[in-house]
Specification:
The protein is built from 15 helices and 19 strands. By secondary structure, it is α/β, with parallel strands linked by helices.
């Protein structure tokens, strides 16, 4: 009989795993992304993939988070029926204590994003607990653990449908993927769950994402069952949509498609789709009572040796930039931002709009300034700020017109596309939207030379900061005339790929 699994060993293994995945991509993902980089023909998408790969290597070397959104903690447990525990705490309590240790580790503090009372006060738990734990009881006397960190940008794009049994799953997915926009930070992985009941399909989709990237092996050997046929068909057809890295248009939108299914009711066809972003993060280990898990660091030889070439960008001084300058920028232009950059995201925008509606003066003057949609990780050691990649800009769309028209704001920086209302407001106010690469948070943070809280300190990572930036790389994503590269890029690359007819209009 195996030894009992000690409480401290379990807690420490969970803590170690969440630290590990904060700065190490799975090497199967990196190898697949490096291959996609070599294949990519779209200059904008190739540049975005390069930034993700460079950022990943920097994080592996520096032991800092791949993405500023260090995710909600998800744990899959397979507990042997004969496993014994030497523990006083419940499994949920032990997982939460491990998460608490990981996220508050002073050497690599991770961002606490979990809010209590979600439909009410939405108070930050300060330690990223509680985790979401899925437990299955299986034969044996060991415990198998998968720890995953899922960012809000990709989780928010989860889709579910109760299809009719005669409906085409492929048609639904190919119709639905473009509606997800780029906020899930492609290139990533699509998890598909089919069958069971609604909640079972969602769980299957999430669990499927925990498997290694191996579509290249499946392509080489050919499918053995309907699920594998679906994977191959979807991999080809989703990539043929031309969405590309960061939604800029290109050859690779997904590196893999995973499918898990389960028997379902004769009247039903539940289908769930959950994407994994460019910050794909999960670790697997076994506990048998012999001590905590040992997670071996990957070899840095698995990362391509790339360096970011800033020479191709046009330098912009944020302290002196004018509306005339902004009007000269073309869609797709690469800019290097220098000077003082304000920040603000959901909570700060809501508070500012409430103040404007009451006729109150804002604590920060936005006249001819740029705002960066970001919630940075706390700094450690000699850092001025922790990883500080962009958050999804579409969440700020409903605030955009009022901010542009009532504060003198000149431009915005975020990730992914803007919706029709925001694009219209940008065009009407001759403003601009710039895109930074989601999944390159540590790389972006290296361009930030100083940081201070400018307002709303009580909001924590959602406070308004003022950053001093040097050569921060961005792309003109919506120009002052309202042209969006997230519309033009995928349309162009879908036509080039030519495997799916280009939609009219």
């Amino acid at each position: 009989m195996s030894q009992p699994i000690r409480q401290e060993d379990f807690i420490q293994s969970i803590a170690d795993a969440f630290q590990y995945i904060s700065y190490y991509h799975p090497t199967d993902y990196i190898k697949a992304l490096a291959a996609a980089y070599e294949r990519e023909q779209s200059p904008a998408a190739k540049d975005a993939i390069a930034q993700i790969l460079i950022n990943s290597r920097m994080c592996a070397e520096g032991h800092r988070p791949i993405c500023q959104d260090t995710g909600i903690a998800v744990v899959f447990l397979k507990v042997g029926m004969n496993a014994r525990w030497d523990a006083a705490m419940s499994v949920q309590e032990m997982v939460d204590e491990g998460v608490r240790r990981a996220y508050n580790n002073p050497d690599n503090k991770l961002r606490a994003s979990v809010l209590l009372d979600p439909a009410g006060a939405r108070r930050n738990s300060k330690d990223n607990t509680p985790a979401v734990v899925h437990t299955e009881i299986v034969p044996g006397d060991h415990v198998e653990v998968i720890c995953a960190a899922k960012g809000g940008g990709s989780e928010n794009k989860a889709k579910f449908a109760m299809l009719n049994p005669s409906d085409s799953i492929v048609d639904w997915i190919i119709k639905t993927v473009p509606t997800m926009g780029a906020g899930w930070c492609p290139p990533g992985i699509l998890g598909i769950g089919i069958g069971g009941t609604p909640e079972k399909a969602m769980l299957l989709a999430k669990e499927s994402l925990m498997a290694p990237v191996d579509i290249h092996e499946l392509i080489a050997r050919g499918p053995k069952n309907r699920a594998e046929e679906l994977r191959l068909e979807l991999h080809e057809k989703v990539n043929a949509l031309g969405i590309g890295a960061q939604g800029l248009g290109g050859l690779t939108t997904v590196l893999d498609v995973k499918v898990l299914d389960y028997p379902t009711h004769a009247a039903s066809l539940p289908v769930a789709m959950i994407p994994n972003c460019a910050a794909t993060r999960h670790a697997h280990f076994h506990l048998d009572g012999s001590g905590p898990a040992k997670l071996d660091p990957p070899s840095l030889d698995d990362w391509p040796k790339l360096a970011y070439d800033a020479s191709k960008g046009k330098r912009v001084n944020l302290d002196t930039v004018t509306r005339e300058d902004v009007a000269s920028w073309q869609p797709g232009d690469v800019l290097l931002l220098n000077g003082m950059l304000l920040t603000g995201r959901d909570a700060a925008h809501k508070r500012m709009i409430d103040m404007l509606n009451k006729g109150e003066k804002l604590p920060v003057d936005f006249t001819n300034r740029f705002i960066y949609y970001v919630g940075p990780v706390d700094p450690v050691r000699d850092e001025v700020v922790g990883p500080a990649g962009p958050t999804t800009a579409t969440r700020m769309d409903k605030f955009t017109r009022q901010m542009l028209e009532q504060t003198g704001l000149l431009g915005m920086v975020g990730k992914a596309e803007r919706g029709p209302a925001a694009i219209e407001a940008i065009r009407d106010n001759k403003a601009v939207y710039l895109m930074a690469v989601g999944g390159a948070a540590y790389l972006v943070s290296k361009a930030i030379r100083a940081a201070r809280v400018a307002a709303f300190a009580d909001l924590g990572m959602e406070a308004i900061y003022e950053f001093e930036v040097k050569d921060m790389p961005v792309t003109v994503a919506v120009d002052s005339k309202g042209t969006s590269v997230h519309q033009t890029g995928p349309r162009e690359w879908q036509a080039r790929i030519g495997k799916i007819p280009v939609a009219k209009g």
